[in-house]
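Supplementary Methods. Inverse-folding protocol.

Structures were first reduced to a discrete structure-token string of length 107. This string, shown here, constituted the complete conditioning input.
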């Protein structure tokens, strides 16, 4: 199963008016040579980014304990990690919910 990413839209630069861009042909369909990443790859990349964000927050916190980072850097890193973790949990909940819904379907 192939899921085309946002890059498959081939957006042309415009003045920022989406309706005008659409009317003038600013959005082109994906071509056969421009296949997006698979769903598994997209989920894997998102998980990797989340883990990297959490590790960065941990490193910045340790640097602050050593006196190498200020409070603002720690707060920014921890808030970013919290947001990434909340997003990952929300996605997990949606996937589990979808799985349960599909499993209840009759064949």
């Amino acid at each position: 199963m192939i899921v085309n990413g946002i890059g498959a839209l081939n957006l042309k630069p415009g003045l920022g008016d989406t309706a005008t861009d659409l009317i003038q042909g600013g959005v082109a369909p994906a071509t056969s040579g421009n296949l997006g990443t698979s769903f598994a790859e997209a989920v894997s990349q998102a998980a990797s980014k989340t883990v990297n964000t959490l590790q960065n927050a941990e490193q910045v916190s340790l640097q602050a304990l050593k006196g190498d980072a200020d409070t603002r850097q720690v707060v920014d890193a921890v808030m970013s990690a919290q947001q990434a973790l909340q997003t990952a949990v929300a996605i997990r909940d949606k996937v589990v919910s979808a799985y349960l819904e599909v499993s209840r379907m009759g064949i």
